[in-house]
């Protein structure tokens, strides 16, 4: 009787293991599909922003040729649009690394926040918004800079610890 129970238990464990393997395989493939979708989405958004950049550039050229509008405001808007491509490029690189199975740095997200805040400062300056709002953006930039320094320091410590473990092993 014990042999039969042991046999049934082993069969049950084997079946559950097969289900686990199939489920894990499905989830890994689904995760890969999500990352591929995100990569395509980032490319589409990047192309749209590039077209927006070209539109703003043409507007700046028209303003320069016609001497009609505030050229500095157009130039700041153009730079603000261009600055959006920087984090999108980083996000696309991160998606490529994730699809390859590599790790990504937290700096990517801090850099994205910094780029967005810089763009907000440029746009608020170009549109002549209150200085109070600009000060909030500057404070946010300082906080993001401190966070970025902490992340860089932490990642360097982690990297040196890993290298120490490899060298000592």
Automatic annotation (TrEMBL):
This is Uncharacterized protein. It comes from the Bacteria. It is found in: Cell membrane. Keywords: Cell membrane, Membrane, Transmembrane, Transmembrane helix. It is a multi-pass membrane protein. GO terms for cellular component: plasma membrane. The chain crosses the membrane at residues 33-54, 74-92, 104-123, 135-153. The lineage of its organism: Bacteria, Pseudomonadati, Aquificota, Aquificia, Aquificales.
């Amino acid at each position: 009787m014990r042999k039969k129970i042991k046999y049934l238990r082993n069969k049950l464990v084997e079946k559950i293991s097969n289900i686990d393997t199939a489920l894990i395989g499905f989830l890994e493939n689904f995760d890969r599909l999500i990352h591929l979708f995100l990569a395509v989405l980032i490319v589409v958004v990047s192309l749209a922003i590039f077209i927006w950049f070209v539109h703003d550039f043409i507007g700046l050229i028209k303003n320069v040729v016609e001497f009609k509008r505030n050229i500095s405001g157009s130039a700041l808007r153009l730079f603000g649009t261009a600055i959006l491509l920087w984090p999108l490029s980083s996000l696309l690189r991160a998606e490529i690394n994730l699809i390859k199975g590599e790790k990504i740095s937290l700096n990517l997200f801090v850099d994205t926040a910094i780029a967005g805040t810089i763009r907000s400062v440029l746009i608020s300056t170009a549109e002549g918004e209150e200085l109070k709002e600009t000060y909030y953006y500057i404070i946010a930039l300082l906080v993001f800079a401190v966070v970025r320094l902490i992340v860089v320091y932490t990642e360097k410590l982690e990297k040196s610890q890993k290298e120490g473990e490899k060298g000592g092993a």
